[in-house]
Design a protein that fits this description.
Largest interface: A-C, 46 and 48 residues
CATH class of the largest domain in chain B: Alpha Beta
Largest sheet of chain C: 5 strands, mixed
Shape of chain B: globular
Distance between the termini of chain C: 49 Å
CATH topology of the domain at 136-228 in chain C: Alpha-Beta Plaits
Helix content of chain B: 25-40%
Number of strands of chain B: 28
Strand content of chain B: 15-25%
Order of helices and strands of chain C: EEHEEEHHEHEEHEHHH
Chains: A alpha/beta (about 575), B alpha/beta (about 725), C alpha+beta (about 240)
Radius of gyration of chain C: 20 Å
Largest sheet of chain B: 7 strands, mixed
CATH architecture of the largest domain in chain B: 3-Layer(aba) Sandwich
CATH topology of the largest domain in chain B: Rossmann fold
Helix content of chain C: 25-40%
CATH class of the domain at 136-228 in chain C: Alpha Beta
Oligomer: heterotrimer
Strand content of chain C: 5-15%
Number of helices of chain C: 8
Strand order of the largest sheet of chain B: 5-4-18-17-16-6-7
Structural class of chain C: alpha+beta
CATH architecture of the domain at 136-228 in chain C: 2-Layer Sandwich
Structural class of chain B: alpha/beta
Number of helices of chain B: 22
Strand order of the largest sheet of chain C: 2-1-5-3-4
Shape of chain C: elongated
């Protein structure tokens, strides 16, 4: 059903038109809010208003899985399809949802009112099996059981661990308000930072030894320094909240529970690098976290913590919240820039690195949510105190997202150094239903499997590395011995095939070929030579892909080949 | 996948840009065109015409044998014969004997004044050189012209008056060296597509600023810093007001004025009346825009002006061009890389045909026929007795047509031109064609004009002959034979030489002027011996890359931009100007201004492009109408409309678009069934004799679908 | 003034001005590095990755078409790692795209001992041939997604922006706005896209007709509706290379 009447859209277009191309994804989201999808006339009106070529508008709509160029149901139900939810019965939920809907939908609500889709990880792994339901006036997410039980809200996330530094204000069942945050010492660090030169702030962060928590583990202070020294202005600060690594939900929890901590980290970073404008890019599926951040941002603005002359100083900073539109690849920093700029989320060739040419081609620092949450701690208590926590090479604390077959899935904060075994069996209560440990996926879909032999790996960058495991974004998804590894591997392969942007050949075709072999494995009909094919695909993707997605798309499967070679043997008969 | 039997490198037969083409041939059929990415003019880029529009060569309407009319035609009762039914095929021997005999007899009976020829801006330098030589030597007639009269005559005359050279002063690709450039009276995107790409790159990649002065919202306006939407025909007011601002604000280049120009004082005085306020009243352009444009142009490090037919095709076309030249002289934005004056030439070889002397007042190389020592030079070379060549300047294109009749022009030789599409006021042109005693058409097709001929001589296309074209930035480039001539068709230069020898015999001339050429390169060599600018141009020097004239000797590398040290006339001359309105302005009866022009998919009279698959992309004439006027006249998009002027009427579909401005309609002139030139006025510029194609008054009324000449030919398009 | 950079490529010392890519530097000493998506007239996107080389100290292989030389760099253009990646990329291409009109890629497959049947039971990218205008046909089953056509239609040459992408990942294809026919788009039929297409996915219509068995006379006798093509799709014949 097309809706050629675009008058409602035309009313709001002038506001966006002024911003030009960077307003493209927000305006497409707005159009979709109004019409449920982006019709051809709507896209044409947007093209005219924003002066973006028609084909490019369409190209952008087509890239993002949450933008629809064809009509969909008024209510959209996304059923998570990734390992943590799969082990919790996501497939059954999906079948039940589609069947129930068919069965119950009477004349009053024709089928096209509701669309049920399988979704990539929704970042609600501790609530597995998770759903996201979007209807015109209402968005809810959470565990299937919670949503169908009639409570229509999700239960509290378990916040655990041995320390609560980053999670100090988390787990209270509501977002910490500005007042609460300040009562607990919030926004003192920014005051302290503003009293010294930006160089001093950068020096403190460098001394702290903080490295990025998004997965790449690049030293934060060095990144800041690189940007701060660039003579070209403006500089931009971008907070990467496009958390989409299957199994990861740490950034979501902080956004939901302690938004001001992130804002304070952003402010200090912006001051340090000389940025007056920043963006926070929140993944599209995180509707509730976006609303929490929006409220917090308004609070902060009212309290003169965002805007002109922050806290009466010469430092001014404006932050724009952006919502993703359904693309894992946009967690890659340059793809995220492209997305903010209103383009398809294709990663760029590096170098040049973002600190030289980032957002809009200008020097940019992009940091993960968790990374930025460390900043107030470091500034307030000093790098020396910060370094008291964790190990020599991995100072500070780390958030771990535990899900899968464990008794207490949730978010755990620990100083670096505890072993994987302690984490799973002591803190998270061990394997659920008296099962026994088969494997854990460490670092997310882009990570690697750990077998029982690797349980003594210390949870630090260097500790995990010595056990041939990545820390990644701090994901630990546990599988008991009843789980089918081929099924899990198939889901991972499927995830990468769906999320590959298609730019570079190794990943574009490699993820598809890898999926096909995993399909054969799941159906128990591997062909002679499939393991060699997998090895060649893995080597080629890892060695020759353009960005981190392709370079890690075979990582988990490769680790499974090492740990469970028998799975890859061809069955006789 | 098929592989070519051969790949031939040649030059595009369409617009004046002169792109390099590689014709891929299999079984004598061109199936693909490419262009080398290192090609100097176009860097591998082509437009739809160059890339796909060559198929007219194989169109089934090609005439491949000489023909004569079945029914002999008489002056006054001449009727057109557009289809083969009215023609009989004859041999070349018969045809050439017949033509030689008739022309010789008319000449012997009525003298030089009875003879006239339309040369051809599509044909090669060699073809044109030989044709003018034939008329001057055998018929002692200077009634030789071609369609340059209908396009850039105003620019040519103005440039000759002010600087002494009439070509583009820069290489087109120099636009990347412009900080500021003005485009006026030129829809570059559609008419010089490859130059438009270079302009867009200059803006997008090199930071150049563009000022568009045009009554149409041409596509380049999307890239412009300023757009001055003037009323058609008010160019002198706008550009002189810019000069006024530059004078007032002392933004002129005193040193340049002192050392390189003359007549400044009387010019400056004439500019006093051109205040921005005055120009706003005349042109409708906001005075602030004029002031900004003046400052931007005058203060730029390197600025250039590009124009096309919106400037010269006017009763004050020469003045229009002078107003641009005055600006360049005033600011010294000329004579350096990336600065200059650039009339963009419309046809593949309009520059070359002019250089080769297809002109009534000039021998090849713009050497005046009325200057004794020059005439003597040509007499010597052409083996003519002293005083034998006609010293009287000949008639121009439009004058030839007007002079038809008893005691005037009696015969017309038309080489490839199509006056029945391209002349203004076509109803009048038709009447004049009917009065001719003898017409020869040398063409590929029975065009609207060839249909009036007595004899049809089948010529070959660009793909079937060797020669040279000179492009808009003065680059002489090779045209190469890629396929055998189709049927009995022959290259123009061979037809002319064969015919000239026969005419010499009929006229009893024993001292031949020289027609025994074995190869076109010999023709160019002869032309080079007479034309200093071409002296150094030799075929072996332009095998790979063409040379830009002037090329004074065989070691000269060519001239990318002109006037570095001095102007050909010495000092650049300022010309005082006054504003003169167009010949016909809108009134109650004819309330709209009609302006004409071209579209991307077609080319000039359309004799090639309407016989190509290009026509499938743009099959019918359409009139552009501004939405406010559409509302006023109650006309919707795609509605059929009747457009009427004091001279005629046509019916075509309307496009409602903001590409035109209120009060102005635009109609392309390519389409025979709705020929815009039925409407246009044949008022001429007094100096350049160019007709005013760009302004006349019309009325429009909505009509029914069945009044359309070809209602089924609609093709929806999304371009621009 | 440009600095001169000294490096080693396949054990051969090379000195080139700074700013040179590894590809260009290798050419100066006669070392050929294969390329697919690279084109002199287009912005390099380093997306086919066939030009990857091994640079000492680098974690991954490096695309030679964009990576610039640096002082003391040690480059291997044909190491085992490099060859494995190139061979696998070619084998994947062969299993995905109809390469019958891509002689250069087929020759490359030969050079790298790539097995065209390496990936059995794999999904190719197959699309209906699009014949919707009189100038050229689009057979995206032959498209290797080198992006050149999209780029020359945009800032690399034409500024027309008639084509972009639909879908993403393996399912990406070059497409018009909502899949409308080319005449309805902003396309000006300059054919710049056809000129840079390396695989015959974009082909002049008359060439295509000739290849499908029409004679020149038959081609020039086609009716207007046949010249314009139709919106109903012709199923392309798929031949394995």
């Amino acid at each position: 059903m097309t809706d050629p009447d675009v008058s409602r859209l035309l009313e709001i277009l002038p506001v966006y038109a002024k911003q030009g191309r960077p307003a493209l994804i927000p305006v497409l989201q707005k159009a979709q809010e109004i019409y449920g999808y982006v019709s051809q006339p709507a896209a044409a009106a947007i093209s005219r208003a924003l002066r973006i070529p028609l084909a490019e508008v369409y190209g952008v709509i087509e890239f993002y899985s949450l933008l629809y160029s064809q009509p969909v149901g008024k209510t959209l139900i996304h059923v998570c399809n990734d390992p943590a939810c799969a082990v919790a019965g996501a497939d059954g939920v999906f079948k039940r949802m589609t069947k129930t809907l068919e069965f119950h939908l009477d004349q009053d609500s024709p089928t096209r009112e509701i669309t049920v889709e399988r979704a990539p990880c929704l970042g609600l792994c501790e609530h597995a099996p998770a759903l996201l339901i979007q209807s015109p006036h209402h968005v809810i997410d959470g565990a299937y059981e919670d949503l169908v039980s009639g409570t229509s809200s999700r239960h509290r996330t378990k916040i655990g661990g041995t320390v609560s530094i980053l999670t100090a204000n988390c787990g209270k069942g509501h977002p910490a308000s500005l007042e609460e945050y300040q009562q607990n010492g919030g926004y003192l660090a920014i005051q302290k930072a503003l009293q010294v030169q930006p160089e001093a702030v950068i020096q403190e962060v460098k001394t702290s030894g903080l490295v990025g928590r998004g997965g790449a583990a690049f030293p934060t202070g060095i990144k800041w320094e690189g940007c701060a020294r660039e003579p070209e202005y403006p500089h931009y600060l971008v907070c990467n909240a496009d958390e989409a690594e299957p199994g990861t939900f740490k950034d979501r929890v902080i956004m939901e529970d302690d938004p001001h901590r992130i804002l304070e980290g952003i402010l200090i970073a912006a001051y340090a690098i000389g940025a007056e404008k920043g963006y926070m890019y929140i993944r599209g599926e995180y509707v509730y976290p976006y609303q929490v951040m929006k409220t917090a941002l308004d609070e902060a603005r009212k309290a003169y913590l965002i805007g002109e002359h922050i806290l009466g100083t010469d430092f001014s900073f404006e932050l724009e919240l952006r919502r993703g539109a359904g693309a894992y690849i946009c967690g890659e920093e340059t793809a995220l820039f492209e997305s903010i700029e209103g383009k398809r989320g294709f990663p760029r060739v590096k170098p040049p690195f973002p600190t030289r040419k980032g957002l809009f081609g200008k020097p940019t620092v992009i940091n993960n949510v968790e990374t930025l949450c460390n900043i107030p701690v470091i500034i307030q208590h000093g790098a020396a105190a910060y370094r008291q926590m964790g190990t020599e090479k991995s100072p500070g604390t780390k958030l771990f997202c535990l899900s899968g077959d464990i008794n207490q899935p949730g978010l755990y904060e620990i100083p670096f150094g505890m072993t994987l075994r302690e984490m799973i069996f002591q803190l998270a209560g061990g394997i659920r239903n008296q099962g026994s440990f088969q494997s854990a996926l460490v670092g997310g879909a882009a990570g690697a499997f750990a077998s029982a032999n690797q349980l003594d790996a210390p949870l630090s960058f260097e500790g995990l590395r010595s056990f041939n495991l990545p820390l990644g974004s701090g994901v630990i998804t546990v599988f008991d011995d009843s789980r089918s590894m081929p099924d899990i591997l198939l889901r991972l392969a499927h995830f990468f095939k769906e999320e590959s942007c298609g730019k570079c050949y190794p990943c574009q075709m490699g993820t598809q070929r890898q999926l096909e072999i995993m399909e054969r494995m799941a159906e128990n009909r591997l062909l002679p030579g499939d393991t060699e094919r997998l090895s060649d695909l893995a080597a080629t993707m890892t060695d020759a892909s353009l960005c981190g997605l392709g370079q890690t798309a075979s990582s988990a499967i490769s680790s499974a080949m090492r740990l469970f070679p028998h799975l890859f043997k061809i069955m006789e008969g | 996948m098929i592989s070519p039997d051969s790949i031939t490198t040649t030059t595009c037969p369409f617009c004046g840009v002169g792109c390099t083409l590689q014709l891929h041939i299999r079984d004598q059929f061109i199936y693909k065109v490419t262009s080398p990415f290192d090609s100097i003019v176009n860097h591998g880029n082509l437009c739809v015409k160059g890339r796909f529009g060559y198929d007219y060569v194989f169109n089934r309407e090609r005439i491949t044998t000489p023909m004569i009319r079945k029914t002999p035609q008489k002056p006054g009762s001449r009727v057109p014969a557009p289809t083969l039914e009215d023609w009989t095929s004859i041999t070349w021997e018969e045809a050439l004997e017949l033509v030689a005999d008739r022309l010789a007899r008319i000449y012997q009976r009525d003298g030089s004044g009875a003879m006239a020829v339309y040369c051809c801006a599509k044909a090669t330098n060699e073809d044109n050189y030989l044709m003018q030589k034939m008329y001057r030597t055998l018929f002692r007639s200077n009634n030789i012209d071609h369609c340059t009269r209908l396009c850039h005559a105003g620019s040519v005359v103005a440039l000759q008056m002010a600087v002494g050279s009439s070509a583009m002063s820069n290489t087109a690709s120099e636009v990347i060296h412009n900080d500021v450039f003005i485009v006026t009276g030129s829809n570059v995107t559609e008419n010089h597509p490859i130059i438009a790409l270079q302009m867009k790159a200059a803006i997008e990649k090199h930071g150049a600023k563009l000022i568009v002065v045009d009554p149409r919202r041409i596509e380049l306006v999307n890239y412009a810093t300023l757009w001055l939407p003037e009323k058609p025909g008010t160019d002198v007011a706008v550009f002189s007001a810019m000069a006024h601002v530059i004078l007032q604000e002392k933004l002129y280049n005193q040193e340049f004025i002192d050392t390189r120009t003359e007549n400044f004082a009387s010019f400056a005085e004439s500019m006093e009346k051109f205040t921005p306020e005055f120009a706003e009243i005349i042109s409708g352009v906001d005075r602030e825009l004029i002031i900004q444009a003046a400052r931007m142009y005058a203060t730029a490090k390197n600025a250039a002006i590009y124009w096309a037919l919106g400037i010269p095709e006017s009763v004050h076309g020469t003045d229009n061009a002078l107003s641009l030249i005055n600006l360049a002289l005033l600011t010294g934005q000329i004579g350096r890389l990336g600065t200059g004056l650039n009339p963009l030439r419309g046809q593949n070889n309009v520059q070359g045909a002019s250089d080769a002397g297809a002109m009534p007042w000039h021998y090849p190389g713009y050497q005046r026929v009325d200057q004794e020592e020059i005439a003597r030079k040509y007499e010597t070379c052409w083996n003519i007795e002293p005083g034998g060549l006609n010293r009287e300047p000949g008639l121009t294109t439009t004058e030839i047509m007007s002079a038809v009749g008893e005691g005037g022009v009696r015969s017309l030789y038309i080489m490839g031109e199509n006056p029945m599409m391209s002349e203004p006021n076509l109803n009048h042109t038709r009447h004049q064609m009917e009065q001719l005693e003898f017409i020869v058409a040398q063409d590929l097709f029975i065009t609207e004009s060839a249909a009036y001929a007595d004899v049809f001589l089948p010529a070959v296309s660009f793909a079937e002959k060797d020669g040279t074209f000179t492009n808009t930035d003065r680059r002489v480039q090779r045209v190469r034979r890629a396929i055998d001539p189709i049927g009995q068709a022959r290259p123009d230069w061979q037809i002319i030489c064969d015919l000239a020898l026969r005419i010499e015999k009929k006229l009893g001339i024993t001292q031949s002027s020289g027609w025994n050429f074995q190869d076109p390169s010999e023709v160019l060599a002869e032309m080079g011996s007479l034309v200093p600018e071409y002296r150094g141009v030799k075929y072996d020097r332009i095998e790979k890359v063409g040379l830009q004239t002037p090329v004074p000797d065989e070691s000269h590398p060519g001239t990318p931009y002109l006037f570095r040290d001095q102007f050909p006339r010495g000092r650049g001359k300022f010309h005082p100007l006054t504003y003169i309105p167009s010949a016909e302005l809108p009134d109650e009866e004819y309330p709209m201004i009609l302006t004409t022009g071209r579209v991307l998919e077609h080319w000039h009279g359309g004799s090639m492009t309407r016989r190509s698959w290009l026509s499938d992309l743009f099959p019918e004439a359409r009139m552009e109408l501004h939405p406010t006027d559409a509302t006023r006249f109650g006309i919707h998009h795609d509605d059929p409309v009747r457009v009427t002027s004091r001279r005629g009427t046509i019916v075509l579909r309307a496009s409602i678009t903001e590409k035109t401005t209120p009060g102005v309609v635009f109609i392309p002139f390519h389409f025979a069934v709705a020929a815009a030139n039925i409407l246009t006025i044949d008022a001429l510029d007094p100096l350049a004799k160019i007709p005013e194609y760009k302004v006349c008054a019309v009325n429009i009324t909505k009509v029914t679908e069945d009044e359309l000449p070809d209602p089924g030919s609609h093709q929806p398009r999304g371009r621009y | 003034m440009t600095e001169i950079i000294s490096l080693t490529i396949d054990s051969i010392p090379v000195s080139v001005p700074s700013g040179f890519t590894i590809l260009k530097a290798a050419e100066t000493v006669g070392i050929q590095i294969p390329t697919i998506c690279f084109h002199e007239a287009c912005t390099s996107n380093a997306l086919c990755r066939i030009c990857v080389v091994e640079v000492e100290g680098a974690r991954t292989l490096i695309p030679a078409c964009v990576a610039q030389v640096s002082e003391g760099m040690i480059v291997q253009t044909h190491s085992d790692r490099v060859q494995r990646a190139r061979r696998t990329i070619l084998e994947m291409l062969s299993s995905t795209v109809d390469l019958t009109d891509s002689p250069e890629i087929l020759a490359m497959m030969n050079d790298y001992h790539a097995d065209p049947e390496r990936f059995p039971e794999s999904n190719p990218r197959e699309f209906d041939l699009l014949d919707d205008n009189p100038m050229y046909v689009r057979d995206y089953s032959k498209c290797i997604l080198c992006w050149r056509c999209v780029q020359v239609c945009a800032e690399d040459a034409q500024y027309t922006h008639a084509i972009n992408f639909s879908q993403r990942g393996f399912d990406t294809r070059i497409d018009t706005f909502y899949h409308i026919t080319l005449p309805e788009t902003t396309c000006v039929f300059c054919g710049q896209c056809v000129a840079v297409c390396p695989t015959g996915a974009l082909k002049p219509k008359r060439q295509w007709l000739l290849e499908t068995g029409y004679s020149p006379i038959e081609i020039m006798s086609l009716t207007r509706s046949k010249r314009n093509g139709n919106k109903s799709r012709i199923q392309p014949e798929r031949k394995l290379p």
